[in-house]
């Protein structure tokens, strides 16, 4: 019996090739989207699940939003370490960026000498000696525990060891630096991609470091501990030990298994994922699969009219309704199976592009559980999508069908129209979302941030003492001589990310501005190179030797600064010219600054952050690493300049590896989640509209076949082709208009919530909504027209000759 079902199904596919192809195309696209998103979701949820006691570990985050800043993944160790007195807290781990330890009286050398090269130790962290209780490491040689317990010992990743020495058997090798040397105590395998931990160099936390070192703090709780109560107690302890405006800050304990989704801010080991992107992907894939399944239903119902006589004959020959249902369900499952195989091929083809979009390394998993899951989904899609058409087709009366009566009841008509209505709602909503998100991201890209984003390169993470030199600095002279380079300066802050420090001044009028006041350390020609708009005064210049930071015999540090317009107004001044040349103090008079210029306001970080009063200071080394910003003149391709720039910096500073990026790319990276949502919505909305048109094609073909005699009579009476097209398309256009009633408010509600995350946002324009509905309506009309023109072109005599 089953073999006869297969034979009949193959014959039906061969006879109705177009119907079969449309069914397979729609389902394969829906299944491919579902498989791709499943791979993505499984990968995202796999982060950090292999770490020891992962379900009981939390990372402490600090909420700086009361300061106009972000929610960041670092925290001080003071309060968390005091929580170890609690019986519900088993242990606390600290990973501190080695670059930051100079602020805690424990500076570490970041640059070492290998042969004749100076090498910046990559992703260098100082850790407490319980690291292995929190992080799984595959040790290749030596002892990581020794490296993180003994002074001047290092544990290097496999890739770092090969980069420095060309091999991994390097335990005992020495790495010399200015104040001594490190000994390599261990080599460990590079961390897997599906962990938020990212380090290549590890050493012990210096014993003489201040007690409240800031870094990545992890707390492991006892089994069945109350995390909410512990977080409340942690914040109480933290607040008691703070002073001034730091009392407005708060701490949050993020489960280790959720850290990947909460690592989008600055100062992360590596940028994490976005739950918004993942759930948007899942939702859109489900929508697409539902649209594809309803298309399958509509196309099968449309084909039912063409197979009605077959059903009538088989019923007349004694076939039961159950047998007919089994036959058509077999056909549905076969179509779904073929679509599944094509979906796997589509996924394999699309994976490289998807990996580039999502910055992931997804691959098809042919494990037993994955294949079993996909097979179950394919069978469910086949059965659920094919069940209603099978019941519908098998319900034909042999007598009515063989007598030429193909009319069905109102229930079937409403089911088909309801599915098309929901498809139209989703299509209109997705197009509205795609256009709105595109316009918002265009606003973000064109947003006036107060500095230059285009035609600028950023050389990242260089030794600050080699970059911030005022005398005999051949490096900058050589950079400025590179063809295509207009100007260059030093900077300790990536303006597209966030602040690195603050400068609180006491002004000559006695004013002391409260709140967050970021400061950026730069070199000469800062305003010109960074693209700042000077409203009054001048730029930092080597013509004025006192601009550069210097300390006099009394131990007072002096330097020149540029201030933003908002800082000037908060200090009580209204005229930019009024503050030029004025002296202000900081650190209780130990720092004296000379205001040499006022610049237009600058917005640090992403468009979601608040604009803050900011200052720029010349020649202040506040971190052990720094950047070089290069302004281009546009005469030479940026890639060519970057290549020469990399070679110059490598040679002059004797560094092993130098990273050069474009500032506009860095700015894009600050909004990467929003850009990914934009591209996903655009892609899925295009597929949804395409599949909706397939559904319309199915219903229109059924309608044209059912009303072919009416069309023939109208042609005999003189009706034109266009009038017949409009007649057949009218019911679908009415559905589109009805879909607007539901899609418009839903789209507005969802998009308004998304736009509220931005400080600068667009207004939702009515034309976007009307355009989206019109686009779907025109696509629907054209789809119907392709069938209606063909129906209207058939000679009436061929249709009415048996009447």
UniProtKB/TrEMBL annotation:
Subcellular location: Cell membrane
Chief location category: membrane
All residue ranges annotated as the MacB-like periplasmic core domain in the record: 21-236, 466-647
PANTHER family on file: ABC-TYPE MACROLIDE FAMILY EXPORT SYSTEM PERMEASE COMPONENT 2, MEMBRANE COMPONENT OF TRANSPORTER-RELATED
Top-rank taxon, per record: Bacteria
Designated name of the protein: ABC transporter permease
Keyword line: Cell membrane, Membrane, Transmembrane, Transmembrane helix
Keyword field contains ATP-binding: no
Membrane topology type: Multi-pass membrane protein
A Pfam family the protein falls into: MacB_PCD
Transmembrane region(s): 20-43, 277-303, 324-347, 367-397, 418-438, 680-705, 732-751, 766-789
All copies of domain ABC3 transporter permease C-terminal, residue ranges: 283-396, 683-794
């Amino acid at each position: 019996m089953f073999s006869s079902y297969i034979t009949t199904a193959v014959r039906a596919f061969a006879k109705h090739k177009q119907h079969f192809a449309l069914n397979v195309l729609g389902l394969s696209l829906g299944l491919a989207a579902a498989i791709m998103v499943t791979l993505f979701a499984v990968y995202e949820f796999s982060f950090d699940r292999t770490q020891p006691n992962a379900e009981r570990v939390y990372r402490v985050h600090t909420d700086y939003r009361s300061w106009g800043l972000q929610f960041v993944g670092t925290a001080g160790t003071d309060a968390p370490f005091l929580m170890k007195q609690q019986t519900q807290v088993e242990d606390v781990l600290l990973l501190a960026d080695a670059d930051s330890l100079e602020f805690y009286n424990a500076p570490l050398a970041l640059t070492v000498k290998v042969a004749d090269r100076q090498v910046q130790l990559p992703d260098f962290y100082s850790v407490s000696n319980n690291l292995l209780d929190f992080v799984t490491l595959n040790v290749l040689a030596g002892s990581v525990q020794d490296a993180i317990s003994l002074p001047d010992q290092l544990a290097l990743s496999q890739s770092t060891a090969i980069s420095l020495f060309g091999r991994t058997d390097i335990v005992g090798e020495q790495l010399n630096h200015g104040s001594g040397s490190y000994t390599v105590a261990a080599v460990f395998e590079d961390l897997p991609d599906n962990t938020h931990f990212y380090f290549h160099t590890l050493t012990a936390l210096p014993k003489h470091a201040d007690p409240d070192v800031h870094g990545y703090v992890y707390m492991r709780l006892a089994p069945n501990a109350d995390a909410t109560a512990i977080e409340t107690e942690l914040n109480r302890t933290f607040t008691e030990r703070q002073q001034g405006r730091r009392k407005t800050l708060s701490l949050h304990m993020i489960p280790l298994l959720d850290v990947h989704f909460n690592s989008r801010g600055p100062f992360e080991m590596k940028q994490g994922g976005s739950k918004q992107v993942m759930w948007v992907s899942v939702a859109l894939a489900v929508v697409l699969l539902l649209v594809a399944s309803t298309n399958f239903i509509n196309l099968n119902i449309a084909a039912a009219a063409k197979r009605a006589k077959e059903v009538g004959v088989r019923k007349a020959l004694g076939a039961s309704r159950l047998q007919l249902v089994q036959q058509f369900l077999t056909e549905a499952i076969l179509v779904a199976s073929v679509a599944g195989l094509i979906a796997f091929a589509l996924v394999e083809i699309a994976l490289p592009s998807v990996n580039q979009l999502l910055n992931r390394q997804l691959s098809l998993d042919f494990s037993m559980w994955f294949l079993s899951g996909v097979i179950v989904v394919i069978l469910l899609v086949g059965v659920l999508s094919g069940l209603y058409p099978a019941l519908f087709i098998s319900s034909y009366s042999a007598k009515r069908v063989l007598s030429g009566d193909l009319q069905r009841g109102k229930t079937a008509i409403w089911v088909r129209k309801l599915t098309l209505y929901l498809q139209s709602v989703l299509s209109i909503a997705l197009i509205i979302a795609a256009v709105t998100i595109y316009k918002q991201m265009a606003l973000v890209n064109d947003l006036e941030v107060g500095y230059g984003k285009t035609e600028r390169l950023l050389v990242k993470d260089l030794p600050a003492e080699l970059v911030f030199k005022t005398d005999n600095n051949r490096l900058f002279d050589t950079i400025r001589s590179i063809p295509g380079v207009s100007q260059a300066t030093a900077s300790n802050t990536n303006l597209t990310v966030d602040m690195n420090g603050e400068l609180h001044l006491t002004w000559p009028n006695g004013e002391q501005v409260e709140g967050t006041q970021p400061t950026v350390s730069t070199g000469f020609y800062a305003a010109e190179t960074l693209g700042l708009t000077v409203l009054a005064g001048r730029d930092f210049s080597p013509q004025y030797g006192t601009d550069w930071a210097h300390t006099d015999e009394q131990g007072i540090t002096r330097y020149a600064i540029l201030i933003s317009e908002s800082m000037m107004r908060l200090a009580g001044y209204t005229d930019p010219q009024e503050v030029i040349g004025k002296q202000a103090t900081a650190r209780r008079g130990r720092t004296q600054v000379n205001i040499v210029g006022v610049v237009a306001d600058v917005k640090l970080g992403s468009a979601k952050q608040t604009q803050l009063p900011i200052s720029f200071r010349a020649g202040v080394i506040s971190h052990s690493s720094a950047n070089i910003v290069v302004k281009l003149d546009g005469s030479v391709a940026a890639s060519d300049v970057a290549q020469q720039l990399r070679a110059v910096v490598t040679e002059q500073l004797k560094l092993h590896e130098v990273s050069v990026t474009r500032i506009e790319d860095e700015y894009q990276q600050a909004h990467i989640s929003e850009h990914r949502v934009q591209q996903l919505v655009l892609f899925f909305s295009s597929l949804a509209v395409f599949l909706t048109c397939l559904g319309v094609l199915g219903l229109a073909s059924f309608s044209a076949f059912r009303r072919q005699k009416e069309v023939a009579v109208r042609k005999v009476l003189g009706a034109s082709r266009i009038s017949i097209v409009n007649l057949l398309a009218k019911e679908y256009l009415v559905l589109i208009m009805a879909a607007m009633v539901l899609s418009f408010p839903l789209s507005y509600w969802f998009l308004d919530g998304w736009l509220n995350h931005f400080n600068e946002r667009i207004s939702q324009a009515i034309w976007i909504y009307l355009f989206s509905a019109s686009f779907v309506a025109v696509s629907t009309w054209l789809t119907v027209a392709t069938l209606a023109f063909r129906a209207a072109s058939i000679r009436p005599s061929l249709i009415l000759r048996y009447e």
